Amino acid sequence: MNVIHSTPFTDAILARGLTKSFGGTRVLSGIDLTVPTGSLLALLGPNGSGKTTTVRILTTLLPPDGGTATVAGHDVTRAGPQVRRAIGLTSQQATVDPLLTGRENLELFAGLCHLGRRQARRRAAELLERFGLDGAADRRAGTYSGGMRRRLDLAASMVSAPRILFLDEPTTGLDPRSRAGLWSVIRELLASGTTILLTTQYLEEADHLADRVVVIDGGRVVADDSPAALKRQVGSERLALRPANPADLPRAGATLPAAHLDPGSGELTLALQGPDHLRHTLDLLHGAGIPIERVELRTPTMDDVFFELTTVAA
Fold first, then answer.
1. Is 173 exposed, middle or buried (0-12, 13-18, 19+ CB in 10 A)?
2. N or C: which end of the chain has fewer CB atoms below 10 A?
3. Would the pTM of this model clear 0.85, i.e. be above it?
């Protein structure tokens, strides 16, 4: 296998002031990112916030309008080939060929990475075993489950043994069991020294995997810290309330404008502000004629961080 040797770098990914517009729409408005070597950074944000655009710039698929970025010590605009040799990318849509077997897919990617036939076979076998696909190696990828296809896609991005891996929403659409399995693979890659930039809409995923979390909204960074520090930032406890009548949820939200409504659970949550806040909140709801069947105090989650920060930034 071709092995890339270069001067060691402290920050695997470094971006300063990245901007990008499409037509008259500004998508990125000065993004700063720092990903130390060997760490995992999770990039969070609502749809349209600029996550995928940022990844496309850092992987040389899209030029920035302004700002600078280096990946593996190479400038993304002036040293594209060197950047691409140092990275792997798993995009939102799987790139494997459903008509080929798992083994054939990996051998094809190995050939594209200029490995010889014998090296390609050996590397494909290594990755099939590492990602738990050796038992299905000679089945067509089109017969794989969603979790298996995502593992094969991730294995394909690792054919060249990249030092830096970009994962753009890799677990979207997977069931909880498949998602947990992919988390285990990601942890193993991180433990082996791979630097990972992960974009995700699953806030629990960022909480479980990331050393640091960057939240972007409207093309700007609105938070950059560890998951624990971000959860402390939104307060020590959250108040969760469930109206006795689910139809009252919108009216409860109008009564408590600072609350976040979750129609799926039938609950609204808000930061607890002082010892009298619970009584005051219940009095407001009682005055509005909204009976509450359940009250719960919870520690903050990454969901709370996301809703508070993106609301503030909106």
1. exposed
2. C
3. no
